[in-house]
Amino acid sequence: LCFKNNLGIVYLSTGNRFELLNEDKKLQELHAYLQTILSEHKINSKNLLFAGMSLEGTRALRMAMYAKTIAGAITPAAIAICDSPLDMVRFHASCVRAYKLNTHPAAANEGYWVSNYLDSRIIAGSPEKESKLIQYSPFSHTADSGGNAKHFLKIPIRAYTEPDVQWWMETRSKDYYDINSIDMAGFINSLNISGHKNAELILTTNKGYLPDGTRHPHSWSIVDEEELIIWFLRIIGDRSK
Question: Does the predicted model carry a pTM greater than 0.70?
Answer without folding.
Answer: yes
